[in-house]
Amino acid sequence: xxxxxFPSDQDPGSNFGELLKRxxxxxxxxxxxxxxxxxxxxxxxxxxxxxxxxxxxxxxRATSGNLISHRSMEKVVQADxxxxxxIAGAAGPAMEMVKLxxxxxxxxxxxxxxxxxxxxxxxxxxxxxRNNLPAAMQGLMVVPIFAGFDEVSQGGxxxxxxxxxxxxxxxxxxxxxxxxxxxxTVLRVGWRKNLTTAEAVHLVSQSLWEASDADSATGGPDIxxxxxxxxxxxxxxxxxxxxxxxxxxxxxxxxxGVKQR
Length: 261
Known about the structure:
The protein is of the alpha+beta class and 261 residues long. The protein contains seven helices and 14 strands.
């Protein structure tokens, strides 16, 4: 395989997305009309800041129209040691975008010899979302959440995006997807400064429970199959996924509270 060589004015440098464009491998091209296809869509994801960093969560259901296409989709993905991405929207482009984003982070570190800052990662993800705009205009929209632990400020930070690639840093919490309204309402009522990590895990779980109760595209805990939402903490210790055993205890508490109501 021959490595590509670029003139100095066209060198993509450490930008992996631009490198793909230069060699004609960009996945973000015009799509045929997909308006009549039943595309699997990922639904509700949330993230909240807490005293130790950030907690992210996403339900496991993917829907194609009025059908459940997948019951165990993973929508919260580790981007690198101290950051993660939660995806909502068209499942295929979203998963492809996350893979390219992970490669972008690794590519930058290898070319520059140092890791990209957390805000720099948020900017790079914004570029991928913006490049997906032609597909979004044809129904393949991807609207992610990006969050991580900032080693400079020693705290959690989180961003949400619109379909044009606009990125917006949130100071407390964020929700996206079809159950956004219901999940965000629970977060707004329950969030406060200096939540502990355990309290934040309970809050995001509660928000997904309420979203699944009101939104048919959002999946709640599937006790029969042992499927629980993906919940991850991002702190100074890095990205860590909360185990299903721990989530089972959390959702048992939520269930008990609902029964008392």
